[in-house]
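Following up on my earlier thread - several people asked me to post the actual chain instead of describing it. Fair enough. Here it is, all 278 residues.
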Amino acid sequence: MYLTRHQTADGARWAADGRFLPPGFELGLLLQLPGNAVASFLRAIPRTEAASGPLLPPIEPTQEVWACGVTYLRSREAREAESTVKDVYARVYEAKRPELFWKAIGWRVVGHTMAIRVREDSAWNVPEPELALVMNAHGEIVGYSVGNDVSSRDIEGENPLYLPQAKVYDGSCALGPGIRLADVGDLRDLSIQISLVRDGRPVFEGATRTSQIKRPLEELVSYLAMELDFPRGAFLLTGTGIVPPHDFSMHKGDIVRITIGELTLENQISSKSRHRGV
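Reply from S.P.:
Thanks for posting it. Predicted structure:
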């Protein structure tokens, strides 16, 4: 089953498999259910007309997005190369405890075809295509979306303590185009592909698979939920295994396309915050 969120004349509204759900439907309430009850509950809800209107990010304003770092060997190698503290990322990759950090609140997330950004005070900015796990209030994985954990590598490389500035700013988190409900077993070996187009020409492409993530997906979620409650569910980005070369940086106007499994997220890059004009 596939969930999408749309802008309508009456505000945001959810749809399932292309048809609108009742106006009062909330993802946060759905994610209060046990994982084995989510699909059957959705099947029992009456649906109305065919869904229309621009896509919104498939997250509600008060839900949170968290992220994992250094879950792929390729990410560890890239972080070591850019960092002034070389052994930090090797230790994270090999450690029992994964790296987890807060990425965005729901109202700050952008969706499919919306603008992402590069920081105005950074010269080296990259997309990070990531499997986004959808977690319910019980700490169970119930589905996935496509995530882009946009990052300023020069800021993070200068000092690991600058991670929040490198990762958390307006336009740095994209999710979409929707949520595919799935069992965790279906997510263990999905293809991940990225293409970045500039002036109509591809300037960077890459591919990996979720099977290259070092830690089980359930382990990543279990650490996130260990000492935090998410009564309306949450999203967890699972790290990137695709790293552009050191001489590559995103430019204003570039188009980033990320495909994971059956879902494709596309965003164009702006240099300005949506709150200050694009």
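The mean pLDDT is 93. That should answer part of your original question.
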